[in-house]
Amino acid sequence: MNENRRKILEMLATGKITAEEADRLLAAMEKGPGDTGAPSGPAFGPNRKPQFLRVLVEDEGRKGPVKVNVRVPMQLLRAGVRLASLIPPEARDRVNWQLRHEGVPFDLSQVTPDNLEELVEHLDAFTLDINEHNTKVRLFCE
Amino acid sequence: MRNQYFVGVPFGLLLFLLSPLVLLAPIAFIGCLVARIDPFDAARLLWRVVVALRGTQVEVTQRNRSVLVHIS
Fold this sequence. Notes:
Chain A is an alpha+beta fold. Helices cover 39% and strands 23% of the residues of chain A. Chain B has 72 residues and is an alpha+beta fold. In chain B, strands 1-3-2 form a three-stranded mixed β-sheet. In chain B, 7% of the residues are buried.
């Protein structure tokens, strides 16, 4: 663990900063000294690939508001999609058929590592906002 | 007063916690052979998934309580 990370975690442990502030500092530190992008939304330079998929959920539950903030490394998505290559051809055909049946004309066999990289590169502009009743969901890459 | 908990999970600890799953390896191996999947390929890809968990962060906040889990 490097010194800066240790300091941030110590400040969090002693209550000097909130978990969100610590997260922001850690993210800024990981991005490097030239980057000051905030994690509240997608922010990229011209040649920057998204590093994380972020899911923010806010729910006005009966026991008070609940916030869930999940950060998933893009590497995990890549690894997960590569697992699709293990699906036996018969099962893949059944999945494709079911997807077509549900109105999603998508062929799983077309997901190759090259296509995946292309997809990830284009995720920088991807943002999904869902507002329903008392629940807000925000999904973006950073 | 806000209660904040930070749980940093080192990758080594994660591996330790997942290690009992190795006991299921023979069953998974046979399952792969039955499904005509290369078991070594499957193991390699699963390992990649586990390694890619580094950097995952989950934070849940309710009222004045906040829990942050970070896999480092």
